[in-house]
Specification:
The complex is a heterodimer. Chain A is α+β, with helices and mostly antiparallel strands. Chain A has a single domain, classed as Ubiquitin-like (UB roll) (Roll), CATH 3.10.20. Chain A is built from 2 helices and 7 strands. In chain A, a hairpin with a 2-residue loop joins strand 4 and strand 5. Chain B is α/β, with parallel strands linked by helices. Chain B has 2 domains: 254 residues, 3-Layer(aba) Sandwich (Rossmann fold), CATH 3.40.50.720; 97 residues, 3-Layer(aba) Sandwich (Oxidized Rhodanese, domain 1). In chain B, strands 3-2-1-4-5-6-7-8 form an 8-stranded mixed beta sheet, sandwiched between helices. Chain B has a 5-stranded parallel beta sheet with strand order 9-13-12-10-11. In chain B, helix 4 runs parallel beside helix 9. Classes of the chains: A alpha+beta, B alpha/beta.
Chain lengths: 79, 363
């Protein structure tokens, strides 16, 4: 399945990009996806962010099992 | 009741289908408290004043600085040095003399929040730090008031309406703050983004009061000013919404919770200037050897940050100590180290750093 990953706020600075596509061969939980990305981009390990799957915020145990758009949302402080 | 003067002033929005005289009446009877009269606060305040919100509270302890003017467009050059809440009221009263403004020119602490939020129907979070945001959330949940949230990061903004008719709260979205991260970078912001997002906040307030359109409750918008693209994400209330009593709020250390507790050991530039020539002081410059310009003060010590463990050989832990660096970020770490590891009695760091004191031209 094709996952379109979108990085917001300082996460795009950690990964070096605002979005990328990933092709996975089996379903994956949000938590497992985080772990996978943290291995790829170690800077993510110390960052705090929520995950939205197809524009809906989901918990760590949510299973992604089809082509989806995943948004990684860190909190912003500024104002 | 609207006077004929008011019907004339607001004619162009009264004509709007869905607003009408009814809506204008609701605006007149509404009360909105805006926390922060900075980047977000300025546009919020301007448009709520224009629209005729009857009572507007303005809370901000900051004074106006020239570096604010690229984005805090409510102010002028002649306002530099003045308190933002006062300056805002002054300017806004000229736009609309019919509005009742209340100013709170001090830091929003737990006690003040619990006191003043009661007097308003809607709160607007136009702050710039996490501890204020969690405080606002908890007090609004306690009083069952909705609040319009927005936040910024460089060229992106977030917007949502929390605690609105049993909708999710800020803590439902972000249950805990991020771990505070130190950086020497001066984080910039697109000034115009402040205008875009702050105006969206004002628009949400308008919709809530007049009951026009759809309020951004249960939704988080992330706006990218570089692409003009908005991502809107649905959010649910937590299974158990975080709710604490007023006593628990009073006892809650929000700065500690958000890792901002070392900020309380900062010294402002004014305070710094008052004490630097004293005999009973130590100014510790923790920059690297190669960093310029060197500071010319009689009580100064140059000890790079990584050598601070030998600090007690050169410094007296009993006397007043101020740690300095270029921006203020490293000196915060240095001050924390001296306080916690070396048990220095009275140590602070210069907020804004040597850059604020000596000026950009000297670097």
């Amino acid at each position: 399945m094709i996952l379109r990953l979108k990085y917001f706020g300082l996460l795009s600075e950690v990964t070096g990009m605002k979005e990328e596509t990933m092709n996975l061969h089996s379903e994956i939980t949000v938590e497992a996806l985080r772990t996978m990305l943290e291995k790829k981009y170690t800077g993510l390990k110390t960052k705090s962010y929520q995950c939205a799957v197809d524009l809906k915020l989901q918990e760590n145990d949510y299973k992604i099992n089809k082509d989806s758009e995943i948004a990684f949302l860190p909190p912003f402080a500024g104002g | 009741m609207l006077s004929s003067k008011e019907k004339y002033r607001y004619d162009r929005q009264i004509k709007l289908h869905g607003l009408g005289l009814d809506g204008q009446e609701k605006l007149k009877n509404a009360s909105v408290l805006v926390i922060g009269a900075g980047g977000l606060g300025c546009p919020v305040l301007m448009y709520l004043t224009g629209a005729g919100v009857g009572k507007i509270g303005i809370a901000d302890a900051d004074t106006i600085n020239e570096t604010n003017l690229h984005r805090q467009v409510l102010f002028s050059v002649s306002d530099i040095g003045n308190n933002k809440a006062f300056a805002a009221k002054d300017r806004l009263s000229k736009l609309n003399p019919e509005i009742t403004f209340e100013t709170f020119p001090k830091m929003l602490d737990n006690k003040l929040a619990l006191e003043i939020f009661q007097e308003y129907e809607i709160i607007v979070d136009a702050t710039d730090n996490f501890s204020a945001r969690y405080l606002i959330n908890d007090v609004c949940v306690f009083y069952n008031k909705p609040f319009v949230f927005a936040s910024l990061f460089k060229t992106e903004g977030q917007l949502s309406v929390f605690n609105y008719k049993n909708g999710p709260t800020y803590r439902c979205l972000f249950p805990s703050p991020p771990v505070s991260s130190e950086s020497c970078e001066d984080v910039g912001v697109n000034g115009i983004l402040c205008g875009i997002i702050g105006t969206k906040q004002a628009n949400e307030v308008l919709k809530m009061i007049t009951e026009m359109g759809e309020v951004m409750s249960g939704k988080l918008e992330i706006y990218d000013s570089l692409t003009n693209y908005s991502t809107i994400v649905l959010i649910d209330s937590a299974t158990s919404v975080f709710r604490i009593s007023d006593e628990e709020i009073l006892a809650f250390d929000y700065q500690y919770f958000c890792g901002e507790h070392e900020d309380r050991f900062s010294l402002s530039l004014e305070e710094f200037k008052k004490i630097i020539h004293s005999d009973q002081i130590q100014i510790v410059d923790i920059r690297q050897d190669w960093e310029e310009p060197k500071i010319q003060l009689k009580s100064k010590f140059e000890i790079p940050l990584q050598n601070l463990e030998m600090a007690d050989q050169k410094l007296n832990p009993e006397i007043k100590t101020v740690v300095v660096c270029k921006y203020g970020n490293r000196s915060k770490i240095g001050a924390e180290y001296l306080r916690k590891q070396k048990k220095f009695n009275d140590v602070s760091f210069l907020k804004g750093g040597l850059l604020e004191w000596l000026g950009q031209d000297n670097f």
